[in-house]
Amino acid sequence: MKARHLSIIAKKEFRGLLNERTILLAVLLQLFIALFSSFLMVGLTSMYDPSSLSKFSHYRYNIAYSGNDSAVLTYLQASPDFRVYKMDLSTGVAALKERKLSAVIYMPGTLPAAEDPVKITLYTLTNDLQSAIVDVKLKDIFLKYEKDLRRVRIDRLSEQPIPVQIPKTTGGGDFYEFVYGLLIPLLVFMPAIIASSHQRWSSISSPRSTSTRP
Asked: pLDDT tens across 49-81, in order?
Protein backbone atom coordinates (compact mmCIF):
# COMPACT_ATOMS: atom_id res chain seq x y z
CA MET A 1 0.00 0.00 0.00
CA LYS A 2 2.80 2.37 0.81
CA ALA A 3 4.45 1.86 -2.57
CA ARG A 4 1.13 2.41 -4.30
CA HIS A 5 0.53 5.61 -2.35
CA LEU A 6 4.02 6.82 -3.20
CA SER A 7 3.46 6.17 -6.88
CA ILE A 8 0.17 8.08 -6.80
CA ILE A 9 1.82 11.02 -5.04
CA ALA A 10 4.76 10.94 -7.47
CA LYS A 11 2.42 10.95 -10.49
CA LYS A 12 0.50 13.86 -9.01
CA GLU A 13 3.67 15.84 -8.40
CA PHE A 14 4.97 15.16 -11.91
CA ARG A 15 1.69 16.29 -13.39
CA GLY A 16 1.95 19.47 -11.38
CA LEU A 17 5.50 20.02 -12.65
CA LEU A 18 4.42 19.47 -16.24
CA ASN A 19 1.67 22.04 -15.83
CA GLU A 20 4.14 24.57 -14.41
CA ARG A 21 5.69 26.17 -17.49
CA THR A 22 8.12 28.30 -15.52
CA ILE A 23 9.94 25.32 -14.03
CA LEU A 24 10.03 23.53 -17.38
CA LEU A 25 11.47 26.62 -19.06
CA ALA A 26 14.13 26.95 -16.36
CA VAL A 27 15.13 23.27 -16.71
CA LEU A 28 15.32 23.51 -20.49
CA LEU A 29 17.46 26.63 -20.28
CA GLN A 30 19.80 24.94 -17.82
CA LEU A 31 20.14 21.93 -20.09
CA PHE A 32 20.82 24.19 -23.06
CA ILE A 33 23.49 26.16 -21.22
CA ALA A 34 25.14 23.00 -19.86
CA LEU A 35 25.20 21.30 -23.28
CA PHE A 36 26.69 24.31 -25.06
CA SER A 37 29.00 25.46 -22.27
CA SER A 38 32.13 24.62 -24.26
CA PHE A 39 30.92 26.70 -27.22
CA LEU A 40 30.02 29.54 -24.89
CA MET A 41 33.46 29.37 -23.31
CA VAL A 42 35.19 29.63 -26.70
CA GLY A 43 32.93 32.49 -27.77
CA LEU A 44 33.36 34.52 -24.60
CA THR A 45 37.10 33.87 -24.52
CA SER A 46 37.49 35.08 -28.09
CA MET A 47 35.71 38.31 -27.13
CA TYR A 48 37.99 39.41 -24.29
CA ASP A 49 41.22 37.49 -25.05
CA PRO A 50 41.65 36.25 -28.65
CA SER A 51 45.27 35.23 -27.98
CA SER A 52 44.11 32.46 -25.65
CA LEU A 53 42.47 30.64 -28.56
CA SER A 54 45.81 29.97 -30.25
CA LYS A 55 46.74 27.33 -27.69
CA PHE A 56 43.64 25.30 -28.59
CA SER A 57 44.47 25.25 -32.30
CA HIS A 58 46.94 22.72 -33.76
CA TYR A 59 45.93 23.18 -37.40
CA ARG A 60 48.38 24.26 -40.10
CA TYR A 61 47.05 27.32 -41.88
CA ASN A 62 47.66 28.12 -45.53
CA ILE A 63 49.50 31.42 -45.93
CA ALA A 64 50.36 33.22 -49.16
CA TYR A 65 53.66 35.11 -49.29
CA SER A 66 54.12 37.84 -51.88
CA GLY A 67 56.93 40.28 -52.51
CA ASN A 68 60.65 40.08 -51.79
CA ASP A 69 62.35 37.31 -49.85
CA SER A 70 63.19 38.09 -46.24
CA ALA A 71 63.65 36.51 -42.85
CA VAL A 72 59.87 36.51 -42.45
CA LEU A 73 59.62 33.87 -45.18
CA THR A 74 62.25 31.77 -43.42
CA TYR A 75 60.40 31.98 -40.10
CA LEU A 76 57.10 31.11 -41.75
CA GLN A 77 58.54 28.07 -43.49
CA ALA A 78 60.13 26.86 -40.25
CA SER A 79 56.93 27.34 -38.24
CA PRO A 80 54.76 24.23 -37.66
CA ASP A 81 51.62 26.39 -37.75
CA PHE A 82 51.71 27.44 -41.41
CA ARG A 83 51.94 26.14 -44.96
CA VAL A 84 53.54 28.89 -47.04
CA TYR A 85 52.84 29.39 -50.75
CA LYS A 86 54.65 32.02 -52.78
CA MET A 87 52.34 33.74 -55.26
CA ASP A 88 51.42 37.11 -56.67
CA LEU A 89 49.54 39.53 -54.48
CA SER A 90 46.43 39.64 -56.68
CA THR A 91 46.27 35.84 -56.87
CA GLY A 92 46.69 35.53 -53.12
CA VAL A 93 43.97 38.08 -52.32
CA ALA A 94 41.59 36.32 -54.71
CA ALA A 95 42.29 32.98 -53.02
CA LEU A 96 41.78 34.62 -49.63
CA LYS A 97 38.33 35.86 -50.66
CA GLU A 98 37.45 32.30 -51.67
CA ARG A 99 38.67 31.11 -48.23
CA LYS A 100 41.36 28.93 -49.76
CA LEU A 101 43.93 30.83 -47.70
CA SER A 102 43.94 32.10 -44.14
CA ALA A 103 46.11 35.17 -44.75
CA VAL A 104 48.25 36.94 -47.34
CA ILE A 105 51.53 38.66 -46.48
CA TYR A 106 53.12 41.24 -48.76
CA MET A 107 56.78 42.02 -48.13
CA PRO A 108 58.18 45.24 -49.62
CA GLY A 109 61.61 45.58 -51.12
CA THR A 110 62.98 47.65 -48.21
CA LEU A 111 66.23 46.18 -46.95
CA PRO A 112 66.81 45.70 -43.20
CA ALA A 113 69.70 48.18 -43.25
CA ALA A 114 67.77 50.82 -45.21
CA GLU A 115 66.77 54.19 -43.81
CA ASP A 116 63.06 53.76 -44.49
CA PRO A 117 60.83 51.68 -42.20
CA VAL A 118 59.80 48.21 -43.34
CA LYS A 119 56.05 48.23 -43.95
CA ILE A 120 54.62 44.71 -44.08
CA THR A 121 51.04 44.39 -45.32
CA LEU A 122 48.84 41.62 -43.92
CA TYR A 123 45.54 40.64 -45.54
CA THR A 124 43.03 38.61 -43.49
CA LEU A 125 39.29 38.05 -43.38
CA THR A 126 37.30 40.45 -41.22
CA ASN A 127 35.02 39.26 -38.41
CA ASP A 128 36.36 35.72 -38.59
CA LEU A 129 37.41 33.53 -35.66
CA GLN A 130 40.10 31.78 -37.67
CA SER A 131 41.62 35.13 -38.62
CA ALA A 132 41.93 36.02 -34.92
CA ILE A 133 43.94 32.84 -34.30
CA VAL A 134 46.12 33.43 -37.38
CA ASP A 135 46.79 37.02 -36.29
CA VAL A 136 48.09 35.83 -32.93
CA LYS A 137 50.35 33.20 -34.49
CA LEU A 138 51.69 35.65 -37.08
CA LYS A 139 52.39 38.18 -34.35
CA ASP A 140 55.14 35.92 -33.01
CA ILE A 141 56.72 35.76 -36.47
CA PHE A 142 56.65 39.52 -36.88
CA LEU A 143 58.14 40.04 -33.41
CA LYS A 144 61.09 37.83 -34.36
CA TYR A 145 61.64 39.89 -37.49
CA GLU A 146 61.36 43.10 -35.47
CA LYS A 147 64.17 41.88 -33.22
CA ASP A 148 66.30 41.23 -36.31
CA LEU A 149 65.66 44.76 -37.53
CA ARG A 150 66.60 46.19 -34.13
CA ARG A 151 69.90 44.34 -34.19
CA VAL A 152 70.67 45.64 -37.69
CA ARG A 153 69.62 49.21 -36.92
CA ILE A 154 70.86 49.39 -33.34
CA ASP A 155 73.28 52.20 -34.14
CA ARG A 156 70.36 54.42 -35.19
CA LEU A 157 68.22 53.81 -32.12
CA SER A 158 68.27 56.87 -29.90
CA GLU A 159 66.04 55.36 -27.21
CA GLN A 160 66.16 51.90 -25.70
CA PRO A 161 62.90 50.15 -24.87
CA ILE A 162 62.24 49.53 -21.20
CA PRO A 163 62.02 45.80 -20.45
CA VAL A 164 58.80 44.82 -18.74
CA GLN A 165 58.74 41.58 -16.78
CA ILE A 166 55.30 39.99 -16.82
CA PRO A 167 54.78 37.07 -14.42
CA LYS A 168 54.04 33.79 -16.10
CA THR A 169 50.54 32.45 -15.76
CA THR A 170 49.57 28.82 -15.66
CA GLY A 171 47.47 27.54 -18.53
CA GLY A 172 43.95 26.20 -18.22
CA GLY A 173 42.64 28.99 -16.02
CA ASP A 174 40.10 30.25 -18.52
CA PHE A 175 38.02 27.07 -18.32
CA TYR A 176 37.74 27.08 -14.52
CA GLU A 177 37.06 30.81 -14.44
CA PHE A 178 34.23 30.33 -16.92
CA VAL A 179 32.72 27.31 -15.15
CA TYR A 180 32.93 28.51 -11.55
CA GLY A 181 32.60 32.21 -12.25
CA LEU A 182 29.78 32.26 -14.79
CA LEU A 183 28.27 28.89 -15.64
CA ILE A 184 27.48 27.51 -12.16
CA PRO A 185 26.05 30.81 -10.78
CA LEU A 186 23.98 31.14 -13.94
CA LEU A 187 22.56 27.64 -13.51
CA VAL A 188 21.85 28.23 -9.82
CA PHE A 189 20.08 31.58 -10.13
CA MET A 190 18.33 30.99 -13.46
CA PRO A 191 15.18 29.31 -11.99
CA ALA A 192 14.74 32.07 -9.41
CA ILE A 193 15.12 34.78 -12.08
CA ILE A 194 12.61 33.12 -14.39
CA ALA A 195 10.14 32.43 -11.56
CA SER A 196 10.28 36.02 -10.30
CA SER A 197 9.81 37.44 -13.77
CA HIS A 198 6.90 35.07 -14.40
CA GLN A 199 5.19 36.03 -11.13
CA ARG A 200 5.67 39.72 -11.83
CA TRP A 201 4.22 39.35 -15.31
CA SER A 202 1.24 37.35 -14.05
CA SER A 203 0.51 39.92 -11.33
CA ILE A 204 0.57 42.72 -13.89
CA SER A 205 -1.52 40.92 -16.49
CA SER A 206 -4.19 39.61 -14.08
CA PRO A 207 -7.18 42.02 -13.72
CA ARG A 208 -8.07 43.35 -10.31
CA SER A 209 -11.70 43.75 -9.23
CA THR A 210 -12.65 46.63 -7.00
CA SER A 211 -15.95 47.18 -5.27
CA THR A 212 -17.37 50.51 -4.23
CA ARG A 213 -20.14 51.14 -1.80
CA PRO A 214 -23.02 53.38 -2.89
From this structure: 555 555 556 778 999 999 999 999 999 999 988
From the number of C-beta atoms within 10 Å of its C-beta (0-12, 13-18, 19+), residue 95 rates as middle
Rg (alpha carbons) of the chain, rounded to whole number: 30
User: What are the residue ranges spanned by the domains of the chain?
Assistant: 58-153
In CATH, what number does 58-153 get?
A: 3.40.1710.10
Question: Crossing angle for the helix pair 71-78 and 129-152, nearest 10 degrees?
Answer: 130
Q: CA-CA distance, 110 to 70, in Å (whole number)? A: 10
Handedness of CA 120, 121, 126, 128 (dihedral sign): negative
142: left (phi over 0), alpha (psi -120 to 50) or beta: alpha
Would residue 85 be called left, alpha or beta, if left means φ above 0 and alpha means ψ between -120 and 50 degrees? beta
Residue 103 near residue 64 (C-beta atoms within 8 A): yes
Res 48: pLDDT: 56
Cα–Cα distance, 205 to 83 (Å, whole number): 62
Evaluate whether 112 touches 149 at the Cβ level (below 8 Å). yes
